[in-house]
Specification:
mainly alpha
Length: 138
């Protein structure tokens, strides 16, 4: 039971975090309250236009990283299965699409197929790196 929990609990916890991050709490309006002051503290002469671009890029990189972590945790959880890569990729794709679908019902959020593609890319890149490293170790 301990092995089962150590393998799957981090994955389930991360899926829960992704769902929480799809709420109003992580909307662009709320994240700008953190990212904006931080950028202005580091670079006081940043123009509003540049600040908007930095905020946008930071949010997209967060999507990429969030799903790269999901890919890593899925690969870790399913590593005992012969088809771990496919199982992990299906989970990443499914959750990315469900996440955006969920956001379509959150008033402060917008659903975007582009965000799903960014999510899937993050997870896929992580899975490809892991598969390559496992192949090199074999």
């Amino acid at each position: 039971m301990g092995r089962f929990l150590s393998r799957y609990l981090p994955l389930v916890a991360w899926l829960a975090f992704i769902s929480f991050a799809s709420s109003d709490s992580f909307s662009a309006g709320n994240t700008s309250r953190i990212i904006g002051p931080l950028v202005l503290w580091l670079f006081p002469n940043t123009s509003p236009e540049t600040l908007a671009v930095v905020h946008f890029i930071t949010r997209k990189l967060a999507h990429l990283a969030e799903y790269a972590i999901l890919g890593i945790l899925a690969a870790r959880a399913f590593r005992i299965h012969r088809r771990w890569f496919l199982i992990s990729l299906v989970l990443v794709v499914t959750y990315a699409l469900l996440d955006e679908y969920h956001q379509s019902f959150v008033p402060a959020r917008t659903a975007s197929l582009w965000d799903s593609l960014i999510d899937i890319t993050g997870g896929l890149v992580a899975l490809l790196v892991i598969r390559r490293r496992r192949g090199a170790a074999a």
